[in-house]
Amino acid sequence: MAVETQPTTSTQSTSRRVLLAGALGGIGAWAASAIGRVSPVRGAEGDPVFVGGNYSASTDTRFNTQNADALHGDSLFANGVVGSSSSAVGVRGSSQSSDGVQGQSTGHSGVSGISDATTWPAIGSWSKGNSTGVEGYSGTALPVAAPAKTGVFGYAGQDAASVGVRGESPAGFGIYGKTTGTGFAGYFNGRTFMSQYIEIAEMSTPAAPGGNRARLFVRDNGVGKTQLCVRFPTGAVKVLATES
Question: What is the pLDDT of residues 103-141, one digit of tens each?
């Protein structure tokens, strides 16, 4: 007796449709989840960095290295690195054990500051640890130690023509010192040399100085004549010369 074989075409077609629908549904779910999440940025060794164009972000972009420059800019006819901000610092550098920012040039200034502000300096420096605010050093040897509690310190020790701090003005003051308290506008610890005259303005007779000192000054003698005087710690005033 022959066994009749049942047709399977309908069953196989149904199974294929179920599998296809399931696959399409899985692809759709994967696509929806991919759209909803942020694509990770690759940042491993050897990964590319795309240059050119403008990019916006709300978080920091960081380059971390151990034995190489984290970021190096090199240009033949333009700036190597440019940073700008409308309300914060344009470029900021920090370090735990070396210079926060260092500039070097073989044919121009190492660091240049330009400001259009009327009440701010082109370059500002602040020593919060009570050391030196600005140190200028001339020479090839290592700089000397910065003195404490000093706003500006200049040092040049090459030879007799070396100048630690130089001030120059064609019509004003080359160097201007001022004190509003009991201190001194200038202090010279060593020999003092002047290539021209010393000019002294008239003043009231000053108080007597401390021990082992004298105060040289000029005053009006009361009848319109200028006197050159010196006052000693005892309070005595000696008239050295009177205007004729």
Answer: 999 999 999 999 999 999 999 999 999 999 999 999 998
DSSP string, 12-46: HHHHHHHHHHHHHHHHHHHHHHHHHSPPPPP-STT
Instruction: Please check whether residue 139 lies inside any domain of the structure.
Output: no
- For the chain, give percent helix, strand, coil, nearest 5: 10, 15, 75
Q: CB count, 10 Å around CB of 229?
A: 19
**Dist. CA 1–CA 75, nearest whole Å:** 94
- pLDDT-based confidence at residue 8 (cuts at 50, 70, 90): low
Q: Looking at the domain assignment, is residue 213 inside a domain?
A: yes
Residue 226 lies in a domain: yes
Query: Using CA atoms, how far apart are residues 178 and 181, in angstroms rounded to an integer?
Result: 9
CB 205 within 8 A of CB 231: yes
Asked whether residue 108 is domain-assigned, the answer is no
Rounded to whole angstroms, the Cα distance separating 131 from 55 reads 41
Query: For residue 234, what are the domain limits?
Result: 198-244
DSSP state of 160: T
The pLDDT value given to residue 58: 86
Query: Is the pTM value of this prediction over 0.85?
Result: no
| Dist. CA 34–CA 30, nearest whole Å | 6
The span from the CA of 30 to the CA of 24, in Å, is 10
How many structural domains is the chain composed of? 1
